[in-house]
Amino acid sequence: MTVIEKDSLIGKRLTKMDAPEKTAGKTRYIHDINLPGQLVGMILRTDRVHAIIKSIDTSAARALPGVHAVLTAKDLPQKGLGVNKDNPPLKGERVRCERDEIAAVAAESEEIAAQALRLIKVEYEDLAPLFDPEAALRPGAPVIHESKPDNVAMAFDYSHGDVVAGEAESDVVVEDTFTLHRVTHCCMGVSGIIADFEATSGNLTLYSNTQVPFLHKREFAEVLGMDPGRIRIIQPPIGGGFGSKLDIYPFEPICVYLAQATRRPVKLVFTRAEEFLASPTRQPAIVRLRSGAKKDGTLTFRTVDILLDNGGYTSWGATIPFVMMQTFSSLYRVPHCLYHTKAVYTNNPYAGSFRGYGNLQATFAIEAHMDKMADAIGMDALDFRMKNAQVAGEVTPQGMDFKTCGLQDCLTLAARDSDFAAKRSAYAARKGAVGGVKRGIGMASMLHVGGGAKIYPSDGCGTNIKLDDFGHVTIMTGASEIGQGSETVLAQLVCEELGVPMSAVTVVNNDTDITPWDVGVHASRTTFIAGNSAVGAARKAKAKILAAAAGLSNLPAEQLDLRGGHVIRAEDGESVMPLAKLLRSLHFSDKAELVTTSHYYEPPSVHQDKGFKGNVSAAYAWATQVVEIEVDTDTGIVTLLKVWAAHDVGRVLNRLGIEGQIEGGIVMGQGYALTEDMIMVEGHLKNAGFTDYKLITAPEIPEMSIEFIETMDGEGPQGAKGVGEAPAICMAAAIGNAIENATGVRLTSLPFTPERVYRGLKQGAAS
Amino acid sequence: MTAIERYLAPASLDDALAALAGGNATILAGGTDLMVQSHGGKTRLRPVLLNIRRLPELAGHSIEGESVRIGALTTINQLREDATLAKALPLLAEAADRFASDQVRNMATIGGNVCNASPAGDTLVPLLVLDAEVELASASGRRRLPINGFFTGPGRTLRQPEELLTAIYVPMPRLRTVSRFVKFGTRPALDISAVSLGFKAELTPAGLANVRVAFGAVGPTPMRGPGTEALLEGQRLTPALIAKAAETAMAEITPIDDVRATAWYRRELVHNLLRKVLNDVADH
Amino acid sequence: MSPTIEITFTLNGMPKRISVDPTLSTLVMLREILGLTGTKYGCGEGECGACTILVDGKSANACLMFAADCDGRAIVTIEGVAIDRSADGLRQAFVDHGGVQCGFCTPGMVVQAKHTLDKQPHADRATIKRGLEGNICRCTGYKKIVDAVAAVSGTNS
């Protein structure tokens, strides 16, 4: 007899399942797929920022040989896209920002399509433009959408306690205005879609980069006036998401309309410049924050007033206040909090969702004030944070229920590893805005949803599992893979339940005709929600298998287990039979049966009430990051030397995968803080390419030291929480604090590009 | 993208010069600038696209007397990695090290970098301080021009349409020569410089001799700093002189505001970076 | 349209003879005419490295190279690296060290890493980072990519 040793995959370094094909160049992204007879779709975008369209003349473009369709707004039903339904796919009457879509062509080649666009003549009458979000609220400001005469696209208000009373008991009150800039996702794979429409059946097959296929299926059906049952979305591997593929954007329905008009498949893929112009951005924000504390280090109140530059239309970016308020109300214990946010229309690019979802902006302001108040009351910056940090068991005034919370451990570990206290005082003693290179250390912490976020009627995910007669497992999950490694972690969780090796698993996650429903990849929810769903389906399969094995082995199911591809005796690990043999015997028996199971997981979170109170997530992730930097006061260059990151991740499932998420997030946060900036001049983007929109490159990365705090969340799959967004959130805040530590100058505007830092230091030294 | 009438890839210089004689050819060497500029509509290709990569006369390098002759097709990575070149002209190797990326350095040529005449061209500032000369050939003859004065505007040089830049001659620095190259930026390379700066001088007992100072990206062309050079010539570096040189440099450049930096910041950088370089030389 | 010109070169070890428009880029030729889609379009300006190929053994951005200039040269793409058994260790290192996430930059990264190691088989981490400076990755933060290459060069600390 064979004894199967106990083994666990949890916490191991598992390689990404699709990595070998990716290293061979065999993975076919949307850009690499071509359907027979397909046409090239291309969009004419306006060069105006705010204007009435007087006329569009497409006659020359239509006459060009090789052009199969030219569409303008009058060819389409005028249905708006996005959160406020204010963004029609093609604009016929008015343009509101430079990315606006005016016309679209389908042609036999890129050259012909481009030439056709050049032949389209548009006459405009310019309108008074609006670029400054503060000006948008002034009386007499240009109105961007007639339906919103005050230019307010969305407003969020929240409060708990009484900030007046809080301020009255404060020994120190600080106030600042923080200005956060506009950045964009820069997925390495540019946006694209292929629409294949069959007119007699009405079947539409979309090859799409979406990270929310099921919501998109519904929205496509609404916009296109189609039966959702006729829409199939296939997601080829995605070249990066980071939140950018969470909304439907005009190019997607436009491509479908072109396919319908031509009865041929149409492929529409952006150029990199177009990707910069026409993808969503992170929401620029002006954050006015007033905070108070007592001499003993107790936080007293926070008053927050935020103005978001929504741009010309409303995508998910307008809803980030929902996440920002959680950080203001609940990262630290604040007895009194008053919070107002407005997202206002301007003639700038519109903002979408982006990894971190407002939390980078909120954390930047809060953590600057944590340092400032600690210094004002003469308390150590770490002690001050420890005193106010949330702990497990706390239910915050906003209703967030922290069943597990590793914040104090994050603070302690990151500070210990980095020698934070000693360095902070040593650097402060030498700080200065002039005189060569200065060194600084800074800290920031964060709170983010880690167990989904109930913002849609369901926050759930479905999984189907089938086992074949070789003991091979196919997991069909609603959760999309966008490079983050979800397929590997889901396979791992299922393997752990079914006692099979990773090599026995295939994950199918890219076809709405096959996979069960899921709300989408966002809110760091996939490991937690899809993970629990996969575990649920695997446990049902296991129960079925063990029941069958019990029948064959004359041992009760409770005494059996699955391990190493075998049904075993639980007490001593002895193999009862190979799993494959059992499955075959079920399959080929008189009462032939296949093992297939299905599970839908809905987290035990709640919808918030109208005052935004309620436990919106089933778990919360925590982190502290400490950065050490150098500032060259002669040039303003800030060099990031090292990052110590301590993350409460619930439990480490795939160590290799989670390290990759955290390192990638840190470097994305580094780019947000130091180098990335969409330079807008009167509504026009001046750096639509990697030459002057600077992403971090390999030689610039810091040394990274990562600690995991395992709080073993009771609801999480194997105790894990979501962590996808967390690592990007603290970096700008920590770097801002480190610059102050190095130079004595508090910079309140991002990014910390050399010229801005240099200018800030000059002003700081002068004042 | 513009359509062309003919593509030529001659194997002899005479054939190449004959093709250029009408002045209606666009020269293709490494292609790294030409591809982006022609696809972006910034450069309109002439009717003939002339690939000069097969011309043996334009390849390689040699020591000729007191000068190094660098063939126009010498790649940036050859400047960076060729032991002979890097030893003879360390300043050029340093600038090559800060140039774009490994992939671009493998393709891009020094001749192309000079003829592209970007105000921010990475090799141009070192060539200016090294007193380089360019060799131009046409069907009617050859001429050599000092690189100082060769650049006439952004993307413009004294090269005529029927001329081919065949080589660059760089005098070997004399003994006791110190030279420095500074390219401002947050990355080692892959950056279009907002400011670059070159310095060269001989250290003599009497003071600095044959001082050369040049700047990149602070005017319509890469430029020498004659005022700064005159101030330093024959002098010993003192804190007061260094301060004055930095002031002089920031006053004699002609920067503009663009997406990479404001004119104000470029002046500040030139001031601070030259001060740093001169302090470093003084400590030498 | 420009007149087409005929070029011959070796592609991943096999002879090729095709006609191209002289203004065509090597990237478009590889992807759209020859169907080798492993080489990616990321920016078209030589800034991201997703289209890195080897030309006579040296790395180059296919987006910056005129297809006509392939004439007489030996071109190796990621598909050529993938059939090269001597590069299996490097590709496996990318897998083992977590150097792959969304994977879009990966083919260019692998080709450039191979070139870096061909030049300096024992490249240290700093040299590896400089070697990869023209390859942008938005997912990994580069550390695991550097780990992978350093594992092959024997300089992982």
Characterise the protein shown here.
The complex is a heterotrimer of chains A (767), B (284) and C (157). Chain A is an alpha+beta fold and 767 residues long. Chain A has three domains: 151 residues, Aldehyde oxidase/xanthine dehydrogenase, molybdopterin binding domain (Aldehyde Oxidoreductase, domain 4, 2-Layer Sandwich), CATH 3.30.365.10; 178 residues, Aldehyde oxidase/xanthine dehydrogenase, a/b hammerhead (Aldehyde Oxidoreductase, domain 3); 328 residues, Aldehyde Oxidoreductase, domain 4. Chain A is 29% helix and 25% strand. The model of chain A has no long low-confidence stretch (mean pLDDT 96). In chain B, the strands form four sheets. A five-stranded antiparallel beta sheet of chain B has the order 4-5-10-6-7. Chain C is of the alpha+beta class and 157 residues long. Chain C has two domains: 77 residues, Ubiquitin-like (UB roll) (Roll); 70 residues, DNA polymerase, domain 1. In chain C, helix 3 packs across helix 6. Chain C starts with a strand and ends with a helix. Chains in contact: A-B, A-C, B-C. The interface between B and C is medium-sized, with 32 and 33 residues.
Relevant CATH superfamily of the largest domain in chain A: Aldehyde oxidase/xanthine dehydrogenase, molybdopterin binding domain
- In one word, what is the shape of chain A? globular
Q: Supply the CATH architecture of the largest domain in chain A.
A: 2-Layer Sandwich
Largest protein interface?
A: A-C, 54 and 54 residues
Number of helices of chain B: 11
The name of the CATH topology of the largest domain in chain A is Aldehyde Oxidoreductase, domain 4
Strand content of chain A: 15-25%
Oligomeric state of the chains in view = heterotrimer
Which class best fits the helix and strand makeup of chain A?
alpha+beta
Number of helices of chain A: 20
**Count of DSSP E strands of chain B?**
14
Q: Please mark out the parts of chain B with pLDDT under 50 across 5 or more consecutive residues, or reply none.
A: none
Q: Report, as a whole number of angstroms, the end-to-end distance of chain B.
A: 52 Å
Give the CATH level 1 class of the largest domain in chain B: Alpha Beta
